[in-house]
Design brief:
Elements lengths: L3 E6 L3 H16 L3 E2 L8 E6 L4 H20 L3 E6 H13 L5 E3 L7 H11 L3 E3 L20 E5 L1 E2 L10 H5 L3 E2 L2 H13 L4 E5 L7 E2 L2 E2 H9 L6 E5 L8 H9 L6 E3 L7 H7 L5 H14 L4 E8 L6 H14 L3 E6 L7 H5 L6 H24 L5 E9 L6 E5 L5 E5 L10 E9 L3 E7 L2
Parallel strand pairs: 1-2, 1-3, 3-4, 4-5, 5-6, 7-10, 10-13, 14-15, 15-16, 19-21
Antiparallel strand pairs: 8-9, 11-12, 17-18, 17-20, 18-19, 20-21
Helix pairs in contact: 7-8, 11-13
The chain binds S-adenosyl-L-homocysteine, iron/sulfur cluster (SF4) and FE3-S4 cluster.
S-adenosyl-L-homocysteine binds next to strand 15.
Length: 438
């Protein structure tokens, strides 16, 4: 009987992708994957460290595993960014953990789990690598419409608030030929949408390949309907990349452009390498090439020493740019980061919360107004599966990454199809429509 492994994933798409890599590595070593925690000999948490909230969720699960371990044998493994950031400290303070493995050391996981299962030995593998890209490992993907490909790993930007350069190590890019082989094989297997992933995806560079060249080459593969990429940094948008998004019919007209803050003093403290003016110029550049290219962003409220006036600069920037969507976070001090070492986390929690709420309200009203202008229009949607709330409805996204929902009854569509939907109603996050026959 093989040992059964149950896995849960937290954090970003890169972690989801890494979970697929880990599944492959485990299966190759004779482990079986189970969706039922009760059956598992091993439970693995692939963790995130980007905000404290991500940590808290993991501690909650560890408490549960402690209770199970009193009843029966169970090997508990913690993988990912929290493992990498806290390392031995996590192992020492949480005796429930048997194995701790960081994002560059997954090849060692099967061996460490075997030691833990057979000899009750604790295992720790948190070496970061300058080369590891798991290039030869084919991820064990969930069948469907969407697939991710990690094209680069790590980050060299060291934004002062961010833990990622410490948990994911130095930037390194994968050989484009292996990426294109993987994309072709995904097209052959029937995947329709590919998302190119990297912590800093547009810094991709391999010999004479840059990110724009790679993106176009992937989008040119027959059988793929849509290509997306995340997460880019605003500093790496050469004209060729903007043009590719503007003209290539299969590169989605959507750019995620994390701004983080609208005040130059805060941007400098964050180490973002651009000013508000640079950012707005880039937005203009994008819109000149395609007024309909949707923009989304990430924002942090209440970074060290941020004043009310500085927050209002962020607020005004959001009003000015009119993002399609925004992820808005409270600043959360992270161990080892430059900000944790150099600046005081001095904005009271209640003030951070209040700023987040004000921005969320603003963004909701912007998104609602944008979505309402689409009522009566037809949009092209990639059918992805059942709607979250009802299996009587289909769900998909527009190129701009807006969720669209419509009744299945009387429609002829299947996941993977590109269909035309007439928009009848809109909320800040979703368009509701009816299917139009070809
Ligand atoms: N590499 C990507 C994403 C990094 S993490 C990028 O540069 O855009 C995703 C988002 O989490 C960031 O854009 C930032 O808005 C947020 N984030 C990162 N560290 C944070 C922290 N310490 N506190 C609050 N939000 C944070
Ligand atoms: Fe973090 Fe900045 Fe790197 Fe993004 S670019 S992962 S925010 S350090
Ligand atoms: Fe979290 Fe690591 Fe991703 S910190 S956001 S899982 S890169």
């Amino acid at each position: 009987m093989p040992y059964h492994v149950y896995m849960e994933t937290f954090g970003c798409q890169m972690n989801e992708y890494d979970t697929e890599l880990v599944r492959t590595l485990l299966k190759q070593s004779g482990f079986a994957i189970t969706q039922e925690q009760q059956r598992a000999d091993v439970v693995l948490l692939n963790t995130c460290a980007v905000r404290e909230h991500a940590h808290s969720r993991v501690y909650g699960h560890l408490a549960e595993f402690r209770a199970i371990k009193r009843q029966r044998p169970l090997v508990v493994g913690v993988l990912g960014c929290m493992a990498q950031n806290l390392k031995k400290e996590l192992l020492d303070t949480q005796p429930v953990i048997d194995v701790l493995v960081g994002p560059d050391a997954y090849r060692r996981l099967p061996e460490l789990l075997t030691q833990a299962l057979l000899h009750q030995e604790k295992g720790l593998a948190v070496d970061l690598s300058e080369y590891e890209t798991y290039e030869s490992i084919v991820p064990d993907r969930t069948p469907g419409v969407n697939a991710w490909i990690a094209v680069m790993r790590g980050c060299d930007n060291f934004c002062t608030f961010c833990v990622v350069p410490y948990t994911r190590g130095r930037e390194r890019s994968r050989d484009p030929h292996s990426i294109l082989d993987e994309a072709r094989s995904l097209a052959d297997q029937g995947y329709k949408q590919i998302t190119l992933l990297g912590q800093n995806v547009n810094s991709y560079r391999y010999e004479n390949w840059d990110f724009a060249k790679l993106l176009v080459a992937v989008a040119d593969i027959p059988g793929i309907s849509r290509v997306r990429f995340t997460s880019p940094h605003p500093k790496d948008f050469p004209p060729a990349l903007l043009e590719a998004v503007a003209w290539h019919p299969r590169i989605c007209r959507h750019i995620h452009l994390p701004v983080q803050a609208g005040s130059d003093r805060i941007l400098a403290l964050m180490g973002r390498q651009y000013t508000k003016r640079d950012y707005l110029t880039l937005v203009e550049d994008i819109r000149r090439r395609g007024a309909d290219i949707a923009l989304s962003t990430d924002i942090i409220c209440g970074f060290c020493s941020e004043t009310e006036e500085e927050f209002q600069e962020t607020y005004r920037l959001v009003e000015e740019v009119q993002f399609q969507s925004a992820f808005i976070f409270k600043y959360s001090e992270r161990k080892h980061t430059i900000a944790a070492r150099k600046y005081a986390d001095d904005v009271p929690d209640a003030v951070k919360t209040d700023r987040v709420m004000r921005l969320v309200e603003l963004q909701k009203s912007i998104a609602l107004a944008k979505n309402q202008t689409r009522i009566g229009q037809s949009v092209e949607v990639l059918v992805e599966g059942n709607a979250k709330k009802s299996d009587q409805q289909w769900m998909g996204h527009t190129e701009e990454n807006i969720t669209v929902v419509w009744e299945k009854h009387g429609t002829i569509c299947a996941p993977g199809d590109l269909v035309t939907i007439r928009v009848e109603d809109a909320s800040p996050s979703t368009l509701f429509g009816t299917w139009l026959p070809e």
